[in-house]
Amino acid sequence: MGLSRRGLMATAIVSPWLMRAGDALAQGIQPKRGGTLTTIVNPEPPVLHVGVNNQAPTLIVGGKIFQGLLRYSAKLEPMPELAKSWEVSADGLEYTFHLQENVKFHDGQPMTAEDVVFSIMKFHMEVSPRARGVFARIKEGVAVDANTVKFVLSAPFEPFLLMFDVTVSAIVPKHLFDGQDYRQAPAVQKPIGTGPFRFVEWQRGNFIRLERFDGYWKPGQPYLDSIIYRVVPDSQSRRLALETGQVQLTQSNDIEPFDVPQMRARPNLEVQTAGWEYFGPLMWLELNHRVKPLDDVRVRKALAHAVNRDFIAQRLWFGIGKPATGPVASSTRFYDASAKMPAYNVEAAKKLLDEAGLKPNGQGVRFTIRHLSLPYGEVFTRLGEFLRQSLRQVGVDLQLESVDVGTWAQRTANWEFDTTINYLYQYGDPTLGVERSYVSTNIKKILFSNVAGYANPKVDALFTQARDAADPKARQAAFSEVQKLLVEEVPLVWLMEMAFPTIYDRKLNNVITSGAGVHASFDDVFLA
Amino acid sequence: MKEFWRNFARNRGAVVGLAILLGVLALALLAPLLYPGSPWDMAGMPFAPPGEMGMLLGTDSLGRDVAAGIAHGARVSLLVGAVSTVVALVIGVSLGAFAGYLGGWADDVVMRFTEFFQTIPSFVLAILLVAIFTPTIGSIVFAIAVVSWPPVARVVRAEFLSLRSREFVQASEVLGKSRLSIVFGDILPNALSPIVVLASLMVASAILLESALSFLGLGDPNMMSWGFLIGSGRSVIRIAWWMSVFPGIAIFLTVLSLNLVGEGLSDALNPRLTRNRGGKA
Amino acid sequence: MGASKLPGYLLGRVVKAAIVVLAIVVCNFFLIHAAPGDPASIIAGQSGAADAKFLEQLRAQFGLDQPLHVQLWLYLKGVLTLDLGFSHRQQMPVSTLLWDRLPATLLLTGAAFLFAVGLGVTMGALAARRVGTWGDSVITVLALAFYATPLFWVGLMLVLLFSVTLEWLPSFGMASVGVEMSGLEAVLDVGRHLILPGLTLGLFYVAVYARLTRATMLEVADQDFVKTARAKGVPEGRILRRHILRNALLPVITFAGIQAGQLVGGSILVETVFAWPGIGRLAFEALLARDYQVLMGVFFCTSVMVVLFNLVTDLLYALVDPRVEASA
User: Fold this and answer.
1) Is the reported ipTM for this assembly greater than 0.90?
2) Rounded to an integer, what distance in angstroms lies between the CA atom of residue A269 and that of residue A249?
3) Chain C contact for A23, CB < 8 A?
4) Any idea which of A350-359, A461-470, B237-246 has the lowest mean pLDDT?
5) Which of B165, B248, B280 sits opposite C323 (nearest CB)?
6) Phi–psi pair at A367, nearest 5 degrees
7) C311: nearest CA in chain B?
8) What is any one GO biological process for this UniProt entry (chain B) (predicted)?
9) pTM for this structure?
10) Fold topology of C95-322
11) pLDDT the model gives residue A16
């Protein structure tokens, strides 16, 4: 059994910031106060309040202003943040969090157990679809005393402890939201959290400025005086900004994969792809099972055989990310390496299509399907073109349709596609981030549901079994079985475990210290 | 006709332009012979510089032959440019002539209609139209035509407004010529030179507009156009300059030739000016 | 046109303009709503998670659950009282967003416009005077080269030269951020940021003005009243200024009027490449996010601008060309 699983159940009391200070010392660098970090945010977020909006840029900037109860290591072990320790009862139903002392919001009000209960039980239940799905299992949430919170679940839910990152359930001030429409409260425009940096200024289309919060609960921290997020919509300008030192850090999609090799070559820059383990984004070719012949498992297998996933990872993404092996990303818990999807094999693909009765016509075309390109930038367009050429090799004619984001979202949600590309976060646990794409109960006209329309009672049953089991061993057994089943059925053609390059000036320290990478609070980041 | 050609040929730039234009047309027509197979085929290593791996102009990020792309792209780009310009001219000239000659309420209605189209930022309108109808070659041509005609209408109207009070028009009116014959027989030929100049610029801007749409991911993904090539080369400009330089040169040469030809036409169509010019030269 | 007729003429034009603007508002409304997708589905898409309740909440909050004609009515009512609505996506009044971004675009396009007209008309006039010579050819080809080279390419090359290689000018943004500056320093700072995007945007239009000026000047130069002037022995320089250039400016003015409407559209690419916080990018981002209210606000704003500009154009016509009467 991996450390991570036991770690989740056990009471963990460590002091990671001491640990991290130790890391820095080990490199011979003493944390230094002062300095401004200028970086990039792209695209510009609509609002900065985590929870009200959960787009990646909002989470990255909001992660400095707000904090969650916990944070997570690259192996997804929970670490203290606003909760300094926690206990889980033997039956897996009661979770007790002991909060840090002297935590203040940016408006000077103390953060108490009441705020935590409000945030979890009311705020996120109301605004966040992701939190809502899990927190609905909380039977009772109470503030035991000013610094202790207890949640009682209606049934055991083993991945519960993964739900307390700032990106899922940030702690918000009750006194600024209670009794109001949460989405339209004034505090949405002027976010007030407990994080090391407070919101100061936002010139739309230009920059967002955060400044050091002097009342931060960790003494002496944060080290930086301020963080400026500049809005730079063009990828080449972003690259230039990094090269010329106008910004010291880029993250997420800021730098296109094909520019990364040249950034690696620059001696003053550090390139990392770690820091996305908590999210585990997996990309796949979405297949609409309502469209013939995609309902035929032989055809789906043939498509999987026809695509060279190494080429995608190496040539299109330049090694940022790795080929997918199945429905669960390798960084996600309960990943089973023995479940392997069909390998790249053009002959096998042709044979399967022959067996399915799809013979090539005069032009060598067996059947024609449409492909809705994902409008997320250059490299996804290339991916569509690559898939078209790959499938053409086995006699499948893929007609590309390029659309803008709005059209893509609408048509994908409404099942108006034959094939498309999609990538979803797995949030560290298959129950949280994998199940939703395969179970028949989630076949809905909504994005990120089972839009493929794949239905298999056995798969449904296994996911339910894994979800409800309190024992990690039982969960592993069910997840292993479902992974083996899915790689046989190929409901979707998994393509790549995505990663995003975090590139920063070597003077910057402690940028990536957790499985959530640049979403972290940056209270320990300093410029040497 | 012979005289027209002589007038045209007197302008040496126009002859050069015509030669280039014919060359581009030949490239478009001969593309399937020069580069058989699909321009989308991944023929070599990605980012091979020009001259390497037997690729005259290098390869792109997927190892596709840039030269093949330019040859096949010529067909699509010229088609988009020509068709959308013709459509825009038909709309613009008829509305502009109508408004400028009749004046009064007709002018008012047409100009309000034109204003209506001009007030919406054309690029945004084009994007909106392409987004609504999904990007296909047809919707792109349609969108370009819809946003391109107002300048034609306005220029034609201005010309008509200024020409209709000229002596020769008044003379025709006195002679009792029909309005239609005055508009098309007397005024339009005299208003042709700005229209021809405008049209040649419009073909070019249509090609550029298509490239801008392509660059924003709103090109027809099944059609290899110069716009597509530039769009896809743009973000890797620091890695593979040849991907945007060569299609850029193709566009540049085509636009240049169209303009030179347009100028020659304008000279040939406007004999008074040519005589003057011939006298000076 | 007599001075006494002017107020009535203006009033008539303003009433007509108001009708055009209103028609634009209505048509834009339907056009924008005809695009597939809505702001709620996009936010859901970008958030990576959604459920039915989430979409329902958003649509109710955005007022999208109301029938289309009710939404239109509410919007029109707002516009008539100069209330451009509220961007629910950004949780801000549209007018605030517009006022924040409009000055940046006006600055950029104004600078580019002056540069384009100044250089373009000069080049055109020079070429026309030396028609048929090498000087003419060089100017013509130069103007064409500006025109035929894609905007982003020019922009990128300028950046590579002036920002990367020479390190003279900043490559993006409108001002230095996080630096304390005095008034004059701040102005100079913005000026430095303005050079590259202004040049990039302006170069494109230089060609238009140069070619137009050249073409019309040649045409006017051959007309009877010029010949008459020449026969009367008016000095050549005076003919050029008073007779030829003045009349040749007509199509140039027409184009300037047209450009007003294209200010926003043309600046989208430049604002994107140079991270210029203007209204063009706002419109483009609003379109992609289906932020209906913001997009309609931009359209409303530009339509008012263009209508005003056209009015000025028409008045200028009457002033420059005595043959043309402003028809009320």
Assistant:
1) no
2) 9
3) no
4) B237-246
5) B165
6) -160, 160
7) B115
8) transmembrane transport
9) 0.84
10) MetI-like fold (1.10.3720)
11) 39
